[in-house]
Structure formats: C-alpha cells, structure tokens
Design a protein that fits this description.
Elements (H helix, E strand, L loop, with lengths): L13 H7 L9 E7 L6 E4 L2 E7 L1 H13 L4 E6 L19 H12 L4 E6 L12 E3 L2 E3 H18 L3 E4 L6 H11 L6 E8 L6 H7 L24 H12 L4 E5 L5 H10 L4 E5 L1 H12 L5 H15 L3 E4 L2 H8 L1
Helix pairs in contact: 2-3, 3-4, 4-5
The structure holds ligand PBG.
The site of ligand PBG has 12 residues, from helix 6.
C-alpha cells in the first residue's frame, strides 16, 4: 500500500545528503587560465569577462602566489601580443625572450611548484587571427604543426611542465611529441585540446587576446576548417583516440556545458585523464545574468562545475576557479 523504498530518505537533511553525495568539486580539480600582457603594473579588466584581468608579469607573480595560497596548483598561460609583433607564421611565438617564455619563468620564480601549462597555437601571434599559417585561403596543416613543435620546445626550455596545443591541426601531437623527445624533454607533458569545437562561446576570449580572425579577402573568416562541427559526436571520439595514439598525456573537450554528452562518452572510452574547458562565453553568460540579478551566481556556478565533474572531467579549466574557492572557504 505504501512504498517500501523511499528515495527521499537519502535527502532528508544536509548531513545525509553530504554523506551520499557522489561528486564533490575541490580546488585540486582546477586549471586556472591566465591572460598576460607586456608592460609593468598592468591589471586590465576584460570588458566581456567581468572580474577577469590581463596581467603584466609583475602582477602575474603576485597572482600565482595568491592562487597557491588558495590551493590552486595549476595554471594555463595565454599571452596578448601587440599587433606589430604579429605575422602570418607566428614568428614571435618562438622568441626565447618572448612574453610567454618570460611568463613561464616568472611563475616558476614566484612559485616553483605551481604546475605550468602553456597554450600552443598561432592565433595570438597571427596577423590573421588564425591558429595556423594562412595561404591561398587555407590553413596549412603540416607547416603549422612544425611551428607548433618548435613553439612547444621553446616553452619546455623556458620551464613549462605541459604544453597544451589548442589548434586542431592533424598529426600535431606526434610532431610535438617527437620534437620534445629529440630535444631531451621526455618529461614535458602534452595536454591536447583533442575535441575542440568551432564554438561561438569563444568570443570574450578573443576580446581578451585581441585574437579574432580578421575579416579580409583571402583569409577564412572562421575556424571551421580545423575546429570541429558542433553537430558531431563520433568525430570527437576519433579525434581524441588519435591524439592519445600520438602521445597525448591528457585530452580535453571544449567548450564545457553544451558538450557534456561528449565528455561522458570520451570518459567511458579512454584511459587517460580527461580535461574540460569551461570557456569564456560560459563565464560571461553567468556573470551577465547575475549582474542583472537574474541568476544566483554562486549557486549556478557550483551546479555547473559539479555537472562538468559528474560528466567525467578529471580536470576543469575554468575562469571561476577563484570564485569557487571563495565560496567553499
Ligand atoms: C585559441 C584558443 C581559443 C580558446 C583557447 N585557445 C579561442 C579560439 O579557438 O578561437 C578559447 C578559450 C575560451 O573561450 O575561454 N587557440
């Protein structure tokens, strides 16, 4: 007459809910993206990313000490490059005294145990805002992979622990792995953006780095010939498996929230750690809605981060890392 099994018994109090909770996000899960600029004493707020900043290297040192204090132990570095240093081949990316190379050293100087991952792609250095070299309205695959391999070695020389190729060229993981091995960087890891979709959620990031594809003749206006079509699922598995076979230590799915079906599927198939990038547009949406008073910022943030982890993420790259730590401390 009455139900013998009442699932609500396990929900009667916060104490029992905590006891049976399956997924708990902790500071150890986070990879913190950081945006760097030249100059001194610079801390510029990114207009489409409230409370997120571009930092000069002196402020980077302060920031990583603060992150470390908060229990955040891994950073993912991006640089904003002035237009006069940009060209089609991303030459500045290989400068041993370039901003990225100096940033890696600055982090290690401020906080030797902080794990440093670096973005590897040409877009911040490209006069066309593309992740690879442009020729004849195309993005050149193999020529780009060669530059990315040199860039990776340059980051490894500066002290990066992991390189994170975000470009989606075919075969670049193998090219990068071989270059690292040949140069003696056996222990430098590769976190591959293996299933990276051509997403409209990257807008604020491109504002942050001034890296959007330019709108001129003979240059593709978007990244759809290399980033994945968001309608595709099987292709994500294929891309990810290939990157693992080529030597990726960690694979990544990007963006986060709209792609959690892909995260779960990949997590069920692969035996390497899976990272998810909760991207700039996802951050901007919640900041905007909460500024308007339409969403409860901290509650929605926690729900989203927990959902990403529940879907199978071992690592979450997120602009909410510090907000998260503040809410739990
Ligand atoms: C570029 C790169 C992008 C992001 C990370 N690396 C943007 C793009 O592909 O245009 C996006 C991250 C974000 O939106 O937070 N290689």
């Amino acid at each position: 007459m009455y139900p013998l099994i009442r699932n609500r018994r396990l929900r009667t109090s916060e104490s029992i809910r905590r006891l049976v909770r399956e997924t708990i996000v902790t500071p150890d899960d986070f990879l913190v993206p950081l945006f760097l600029v030249g100059g001194k004493h610079v801390k510029e707020e990114i207009p489409s990313m409230p409370n997120y900043y571009r930092l000069s290297l002196d402020n980077l040192e302060k920031e990583v000490k603060e992150l470390w204090q908060m229990g955040l132990r891994a950073v993912l570095l991006f640089v904003k490059v002035p237009d006069d240093l940009k060209d089609n081949k991303g030459t500045e990316a290989l400068n041993p005294e370039g901003l990225m190379q100096r940033a890696i050293k600055a982090v290690k100087n401020a906080c030797p145990e902080m794990l440093v991952m670096t973005d590897v792609a040409l877009d911040p250095f490209s006069s066309y805002g593309h992740d690879g070299i442009v020729a004849d309205r195309q993005i050149l695959n193999d020529e780009t992979s060669e530059v990315l391999a040199e860039m990776s070695v340059s980051h490894a020389k500066a002290g990066a622990d992991f390189v994170a190729p975000s470009d989606m060229m075919d075969g670049r993981i193998l090219t990068i792995r071989e270059a690292l091995e040949n140069e003696g960087f056996q222990n430098t890891g590769i976190m591959s953006y293996s299933a990276k979709y051509a997403s409209a959620f990257y807008g604020p990031f491109r504002d942050a780095l001034d890296s959007a594809p330019v709108d001129i003749a003979n240059v593709p206006k978007d990244k759809k010939t290399y980033q994945m079509d968001y309608a595709n699922r099987f292709e994500a598995l294929k891309e990810t498996q290939m990157d693992i076979d080529e030597g990726a230590d960690i694979v990544m799915i990007k963006p986060g929230l709209c792609y959690l079906d892909i995260v779960r599927e990949i997590k069920n198939e692969v035996d390497v750690p899976v990272a998810v990038y909760q991207v700039s547009g996802e951050y901007a949406m919640l900041k905007a809605a909460s500024e308007k008073g339409w969403l409860d910022h901290d509650a929605v943030m926690l729900e989203q981060l927990t959902a990403i982890k529940r879907a199978g993420a071992n690592i979450i790259a997120s602009y909410f890392a510090k907000d998260f730590v503040r809410t739990i401390s």
